[in-house]
Amino acid sequence: MESVTIKMEDSLAKEMNNIMNPLYSTKTEFIREAIRDKINLIKKEETLKALKRLHGSSKTKISDKRLREIREEVGKEFLKKFNLS
Which of 17, 25, 74, 82 has a 20 to 30 Å separation from 35 between CA atoms? Predict the structure, then answer.
């Protein structure tokens, strides 16, 4: 496991201490969870950007029902690919 040292303003450290109790027993646990959440958020944003790039790129006519099915399939694939499910 790799060690990482961080410095933060006193006010941010106090706010973190107030919020993390009693949900987290250590600052390390709280910070790890915050980093995981941020990574997942970035992956989700990347997935949404990729979906937006694909939106409207079809040259053929597709029914609304089929389009919804395709979106659901693609969404599930992206969730699986980026471990967001």
Answer: 74
For residue 5, give the 3-state DSSP assignment: coil
Cβ atoms of 84 and 44 closer than 8 Å: yes
Burial class of residue 63 (count of CB atoms within 10 Å of its CB; 0-12, 13-18, 19+): exposed
Nearest to 47 by CA among 19, 74, 12, 14: 74
pLDDT tens digits along 43-59: 999 998 888 887 766 66
For residue 55, the SS3 value is coil
pTM, full prediction:
0.59
